[in-house]
Amino acid sequence: MAAIYSLYIINKSGGLIFYKDYGSAGRMDTNDTLRLASLWHSMHAISQQLSPIPGCSGIELLQADTFDLNCFQSLTGNFQLEYSEKLDVWCWRLDKDGQLEPKPFCELVMGGLVLLGTKVFVVSEPGTLHMEYLLKYVYELYTDYVLKNPFYEMEMPIRCELFDINLTQAVQKDRVALLGR
Amino acid sequence: MQFFGGSEISPSPPPPTVSGNNAHMLYVFNRNGVCLLYREWNRPLKTLNPQQDHKLMFGLLFSLKSLTAKMDPTSAEKGNLGVPQLPGQGCSFHSFRTNTYKLSFMESPSGIKIILVTHPRTGDLRESLKYIYNLYVEYVVKNPLYSPGAPIKCELFNSTLDQYVRGLG
Prior knowledge:
Chain A: Its main location: endoplasmic reticulum. Helices cover 34% and strands 27% of the residues of chain A. With 181 residues, chain A is of the alpha+beta class. In chain A, strands 2-1-7-4-3 form a five-stranded antiparallel sheet. A two-stranded antiparallel sheet of chain A has the order 5-6. In chain A, helix 3 (131-147) runs antiparallel to helix 4 (161-171). Chain B has 169 residues and is an alpha+beta fold. Chain B has one domain (21-41, 49-69, 86-165): Beta-Lactamase, CATH 3.30.450.70. In chain B, strands 2-1-5-4-3 form a five-stranded antiparallel sheet, sandwiched between helices.
């Protein structure tokens, strides 16, 4: 049985840009994976809003009955989704010209605003170790082989052969243990 | 999902996992999403009014449960995303961790949800949540003046709970 079941990369607006399955039971179709990705995106944002302490950056580890979900979020992203007491709705933070208001990072996090960055998450067997290193490494691969690819358009699905090859190598069980050192 | 045996309170509560008072808050919801109890011990950041906060918390748990049920990599038959599931049905979750807090979650067979928010480095709290559920059964359900589905206003329950959660940390 594989230690890693699947890997997802989602962009800043919650769209799935990369999905790879490494042997989970019952295949999911494309629509299901897209829905799961955007659901995770919103749950991640809500978890920041519910924090009892300022400075929360979202769920890092979700422990389910049959799997663990480790998530890494990049620090570069949009600050969006603010709860407005006055209007009683969740809304985008816009200034009067309709642009996102530029604010310093710490001020935004402290004010209970939500960071929506690129997220990499991996579904693995319960208790699998060193997943945070794997996620950081996958993010490195993403920056090296995807973002630096001149033919890649930001926020679009990833179709890069070199990225695929390097990712497959990284995900192999023994490599994950090595990355932890 | 485990179902619990007799309703007796186990003679001794499970041992504390970490030292130091580290519980932030506790929620109890019934299966209709009504917040029966909200206790707060340490919560410096409040972004929402209490009602909105409870709604958002229940919504988060509900959606995370449907996410884990759909994502479950060990079963082939998972149904569609968002289909409501009975307690104990499908793959659920017992905790999640962020950089600022850890949320532990338990659902009883009757759909009572207990949520405990603690310091992120707290260990496994599944046994502690079961113990809190036992307290609920003993002090609330067996109280003849309590009507099911109403917010919990039992002083004895609150004080025992406070004492236990303090002892947890």
